[in-house]
Design goal:
single chain; 294 residues; mainly alpha; Tetracycline Repressor, domain 2
């Protein structure tokens, strides 16, 4: 069980971003493409797990001081560092082999993701601002990889919004580290020295506003309207605003944004807004005959 926890499979949900380009292309039910994307999903997941393992290996001592991360397999002593390194090698071999099966260009993107995040784990994560930018680029690479695996064009709007949303969540997560530092006096990560609560709060508010404006511009863009054959996409902005407001509530009121993945799994309001957003796009993209009801 501890070896499974080492892979952090609950974080694999992030790799569902690979399916986004196909969803927006209106070809989600193409069986041959889905098969390729499932392989791509597994490739990205094992590659990401290798990064989680090497990150845990590097941060054993720091994690032992963290109220939550101290329970991680290597930090708690349940898995030895040498065993962790063996699992790291296995994961990267499996991940890159599966990526090659998808297509060489997909392997190239996965390799960039691996190298960038390896550098992040080996030291770049200690540089404030750069650390959250690298995390956000990881989600952009997922989108690009999904487009390559499904032979789907990825719009610049989609790339910009995914980057901004990932940056928003990364800042919220770093804010939680600053909060822990202020309460316990423990430095959770070196990059936290470049952050304080005032800075985090301003950046979060700024990013939330930019995301909403960009999303509205995307839905009202003439090219977007032509692509989806409707001008009613702006209706979906309601769910984007609701989801962002809930995330800000969790951040500012509940002070509980340590893990965006944990929030996704446990917060019913966030789950509902995402489900309704997906459903609304599904109706617009896949059921055009129902457009007259909006």
């Amino acid at each position: 069980m501890q070896y499974l926890k080492l892979l952090r499979p609950h974080h694999w949900v992030k790799n569902l971003f690979l399916f986004i380009p196909l969803f927006f292309a209106g070809e989600l039910f193409s069986l041959s493409t889905i098969t390729s994307l499932v392989t791509a999903f597994l490739a990205f997941s094992f590659t990401a797990s290798s990064i989680y393992i090497i990150n845990d290996y590097k941060d054993i001592e720091a994690d032992r001081k963290h109220p939550v991360k101290c329970k991680r397999p290597m930090a708690s002593g349940a898995v030895t560092p040498s065993a962790g390194l063996v699992f790291f090698i296995l994961c990267i071999i499996i991940g890159l082999a599966l990526a090659w099966l998808v297509k060489p260009k997909f392997l190239f993107v996965v390799s960039i993701y691996f190298i960038l995040n390896l550098l992040y784990s080996l030291g770049l994560k200690h540089i404030s601002i750069l650390d959250i930018i690298i995390l956000s680029i990881g989600f952009v690479l997922r989108i690009k990889a999904g487009g390559i695996a499904s032979n789907t064009a990825v719009s610049s709007w989609l790339i910009v919004m995914v980057f901004l949303l990932a940056l928003f969540m990364a800042v919220a997560k770093r804010r939680d580290d600053v909060l822990i530092k202020n309460e316990s006096g423990q430095e959770m990560r070196k990059a936290s020295k470049g952050y304080n609560m005032d800075f985090m709060n301003v950046v979060l508010a700024l990013l939330a506003a930019v995301i909403i404006v960009c999303y509205l511009m995307y839905t009202l863009d003439p090219e977007t309207m032509r692509r989806f054959h409707t001008y009613r996409l702006y209706y979906t902005t309601l769910f984007v605003i609701a989801g962002l407001l809930r995330y800000l509530q969790i951040t500012y009121v509940e002070n509980n944004t340590g893990s965006p993945t944990k929030i996704l799994y446990k917060d019913r309001f966030i789950q509902l807004t995402i489900a309704l957003w997906i459903l609304s796009f599904y109706v617009i993209i896949y059921l055009p005959a129902n457009e007259s009801f909006f």
